[in-house]
Amino acid sequence: MENFKICPISEHCGGCLYQGVSYEEQRAEKENIIREQLTRRKVDDSVFCGLVPALSEYRYRNKMEYTFGDLEIGGELTLGMHKKRHFMSIVTCDECQLVPMDFNRVLRATLDFCVEKGYSFYHKKSHQGLLRNLVVRHGVKTNELLVNIVTSSEDGFDEQAYLDMLLGLKLDNELIGVMRTFNDSLADAVINEGVKILFGRDYYNEEILGLKFKVNAFSFFQTNIEAVERLYSEALALIPELDSKVVYDLYCGTGTISQLMASKAKKVYGIEIVQDSVDAAIDNAKMNNIDNCHFICGDVKAKLDEVTEKPDMIVVDPPRMGMHDKVVEMLSSYGIEQILYISCNPNTMAMNLEKFSELGYEPVVMKAYDNFPKTKHVESVTLLSRTTL
User: Fold this and answer.
1) What is the DSSP-derived secondary structure letter of residue 5?
2) Residues 68 and 197 grouped into a single domain
């Protein structure tokens, strides 16, 4: 059993907000934030059931995207997270408590390798340099580990030596893929401009509530598997009988909820703007022998009208920015009895619920989940019911 202490870089790292704060204080503050947002938007919080505690405070993340850089101008190479309030500075975080120990091992070994080789990092201002990011992903149910080093196309990176170093590490999980992604984009983001598989494959496998998922290197996927299994189970339990019903799953990502509903529903339409996620959703449905899910790539606002079969039930799981008022209006216009709203941002959730209320939909059940302890993030589930004809 690990003896967790306050993270040694908590003063500088921008990843955690609540290092050194008792878990009960964290929960109380997050719950208060949700209630304040609901009150500010005049949303009835009497149906709010509170914040469900985390299943685990530590080692729960299955993906991390690290950045190469330096802590001080001209300083030694670092690899990790952005420093608080200093976007150009990077703090090495090889003792992170939120990730599996293998992530810390891979990060430290990668940094040591790159320092020994004398590699430079990609400078955001000059747009020169080799090293950009390290992305590590983990299959919780399968114990598979995927490593992706992101560089510019600049010559000099010794791929074979890097691979040999990784294969020589003692890890808890099985290293099933090592990739090098090329990115010469000016944007400060992991952008795929070409991938070279150095070892194994460019995806890992995962399981959620009995379904199997192939998670591509660049696909969005839930970052806390045990927590999302609980959230999805309790969220879907709120939905009335789905037999013979047509369901819309909007902002569906890789189609996890779509496929979970498919066993009961007549048909599920999933809409998602990221093509890679839609491709993964289609592949995963085939892998799970599900033939009543239809996935559409595009913006929800633009694609809703393309679906001629109208819904009996709607599930939405929008990004942090929430839903545009126009989308809320479109969903309300269907006149169905219930809408299930899954949120990752209390602020935009309250904003959307306020708009739904204006259009005749009120929350009847609302529950929040502390799926990301030590950070500011919370997720929530709200069942909305139509109150006007």
Assistant:
1) -
2) yes
Known binding residues are 222, 251, 272, 317
Q: Residue 350's domain is classified under what CATH number?
A: 3.40.50.150
3-state class (DSSP) for residue 341 = strand
> CA 99, CA 110: separation in Å to the nearest integer?
16
Q: Is 344 a catalytic residue?
A: yes
pLDDT exceeds cutoff 60 at 101: yes
Instruction: Tell me, yes or no, whether 257 and 362 share the same domain.
Output: yes
Q: Average of pLDDT values for 57-85?
A: 92
Q: Is residue 259 part of a domain?
A: yes
Q: Which of 49, 93, 297, 344 is catalytic?
A: 344
Annotated binding site for S-adenosyl-L-methionine: 222, 251, 272, 317
Same domain, residue pair 128 and 47: no
> Same domain for 381 and 250?
yes
Query: 3-state class of 336 per DSSP?
Result: coil
Same domain, 240 and 189: no
- The verdict on 192 and 308 lying in the same domain is no
Q: What is the CATH number of the domain that holds 151?
A: 2.40.50.1070
Q: Which residues of 286-321 are buried (b: 16+ CB within 10 A; e: fewer)?
A: eebebebbbbbbeebeebbeeeeeebbbbbbbbeee
Q: How confident is the model over 111-148, as pLDDT tens digits?
A: 999 999 999 999 988 889 999 999 999 999 999 999 99
* Residue 13 in tokens: 């790292």
